[in-house]
């Protein structure tokens, strides 16, 4: 079993900053990639940022230059530094990890999400 737990969401004013964290735990042999997705009311879930084991990083065009994704030395924790936040960034942010489990299978795992609200 693999679990992802997000933290760091909350209410912030436009132009403010937040740092999201996601820790993966459980039967993980290795992590191929970790990323952040978000879903606003009435919209489809979209990719925000993703970092692969190769080091390649993808960002949504809407967050380039404002958000930064990174991982810690343990390789199973991912962060999202969010700056210059806009009201349109308001959404539930979900952590995702593509892992190779200890029983020899790849699995895409999701956290339960953390709410980010940008409002004055």
How many extended strands?
11
Tally of contiguous helical segments: 0
The poorly predicted ranges are none
Helix content: under 10%
By helix and strand content, what is the structural category? mainly beta
Which radius of gyration do the C-alpha atoms yield? Answer: 14 Å
Helix/strand order: EEEEEEEEEEE
Separation, N- and C-terminal Cα atoms: 40 Å
The largest pleated sheet is described as:
7 strands, mixed
Mean residue pLDDT? 95
Oligomer: single chain
User: How large is the share of residues in beta strands?
Assistant: over 45%
General shape: elongated
Summarize this entry quickly.
This protein is mainly beta and 120 residues long. The protein has strands spanning 2-7, 10-12, 18-26, 28-39, 46-52, 57-59, 67-71, 77-82, 91-101, 106-110, 114-118.
Description:
- With 120 residues, the chain is an all-beta fold.
- 0% of the residues lie in helices and 60% in strands.
- The chain has no helices and eleven strands.
- The protein has strands at residues 2-7, 10-12, 18-26, 28-39, 46-52, 57-59, 67-71, 77-82, 91-101, 106-110, 114-118.
- The strands form two sheets. Strands 2, 4, 5, 6, 9, 10 and 11 form a seven-stranded mixed sheet that branches. The chain has a four-stranded antiparallel sheet with strand order 1-3-8-7, with no helix packed on it.
- The mean pLDDT is 95.
Layout of helices and strands, plus pairs?
Layout: E1 2-7, E2 10-12, E3 18-26, E4 28-39, E5 46-52, E6 57-59, E7 67-71, E8 77-82, E9 91-101, E10 106-110, E11 114-118
Parallel strand pairs: 2-11
Antiparallel strand pairs: 1-3, 3-8, 4-5, 4-9, 5-6, 7-8, 9-10, 9-11
């Amino acid at each position: 079993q693999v679990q992802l737990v997000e933290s760091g969401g909350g209410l912030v004013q436009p132009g403010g900053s937040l740092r999201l964290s996601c820790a993966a735990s459980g039967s993980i042999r290795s992590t191929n990639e970790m990323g952040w997705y978000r879903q606003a009311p009435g919209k489809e879930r979209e990719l925000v940022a993703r970092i692969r084991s190769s080091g390649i990083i993808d960002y949504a065009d809407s967050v380039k230059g404002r958000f930064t994704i990174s991982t810690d030395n343990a390789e199973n924790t991912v962060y999202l530094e969010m700056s210059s936040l806009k009201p349109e960034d308001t959404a539930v942010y979900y952590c995702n990890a593509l892992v190779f489990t200890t029983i020899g299978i790849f699995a895409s795992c999701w956290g339960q999400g953390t709410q980010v609200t940008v409002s004055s």
